[in-house]
């Protein structure tokens, strides 16, 4: 096989790969835009306001306060806001109300109570805490799913940029390969 034929073959393969990279970049861009739009629409439709300065000041852990500070008073619309609210506001309140016990632990204790104990004032407080922890866990799970999808959207956007850059590099290399295939055999290209 002549060198020029090999150069052309490799260059055509490079062009095909560049086309694949551009298609992948386009699909990844579409996926990123779709995911981000869905996350934003779903979060905005819930009309959740991030806590204000007073709400943040009531949190005991300075890490929770710092995680929420950038979003003071904003309407929740991003995955990062959803994660901060779930992990640093809802969870902080859940832990404060249950002394760090999980829903599973509180529910297990409640289930072991006799009917008379459940009907008592202490049993009713435990039932209310159990319900509150259940609702908190549910909301946290939903918000953390929004965060996970938003993160996938970010990853798709980064992958799209990488695919487009890879496509451009392959186009340039293919062009150089075609150019080299036209040079006299055995001679090196001089720019």
For the terminal residues, how far apart are their CA atoms?
Answer: 26 Å
Q: Helical stretch count?
A: 7
Number of domains: 1
Give helix % range: over 70%
Secondary structure tally: strands: 0
- Portion in strands: under 5%
Properties at a glance:
disordered C terminus, 7 helices, transmembrane helix, membrane, transmembrane, mainly alpha, 79% helix, Aromatic ring-opening dioxygenase LigA, 0% strand, 191 residues, elongated
Can you walk through the features of this model?
The protein is mainly alpha-helical. It has one domain. Helix content is 79%, strand content 0%. It is built from seven helices and no strands. Helix 5 runs antiparallel to helix 7. The C terminus is likely disordered. This is Aromatic ring-opening dioxygenase LigA.
């Amino acid at each position: 096989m002549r060198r020029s034929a090999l150069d052309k073959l490799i260059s055509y393969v490079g062009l095909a790969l560049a086309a694949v990279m551009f298609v992948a970049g386009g699909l990844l861009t579409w996926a990123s835009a779709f995911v981000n739009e869905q996350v934003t629409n779903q979060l905005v439709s819930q009309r959740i306001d991030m806590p204000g300065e007073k709400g943040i000041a009531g949190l005991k852990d300075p890490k929770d306060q710092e995680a929420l500070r950038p979003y003071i008073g904003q309407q929740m619309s991003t995955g990062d806001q959803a994660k901060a609210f779930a992990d640093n506001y809802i969870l902080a309140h859940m832990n404060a109300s249950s002394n760090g016990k999980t829903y599973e632990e509180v529910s297990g204790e409640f289930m072991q109570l006799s009917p008379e104990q459940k009907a008592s004032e202490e049993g009713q407080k435990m039932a209310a805490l159990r319900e509150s922890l259940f609702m908190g866990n549910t909301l946290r799970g939903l918000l953390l799913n929004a965060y996970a999808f938003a993160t996938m959207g970010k990853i798709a956007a980064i992958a799209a940029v990488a695919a487009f850059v890879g496509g451009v590099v392959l186009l340039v290399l293919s062009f150089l390969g075609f150019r080299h295939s036209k040079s006299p055999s055995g001679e090196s290209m001089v720019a």
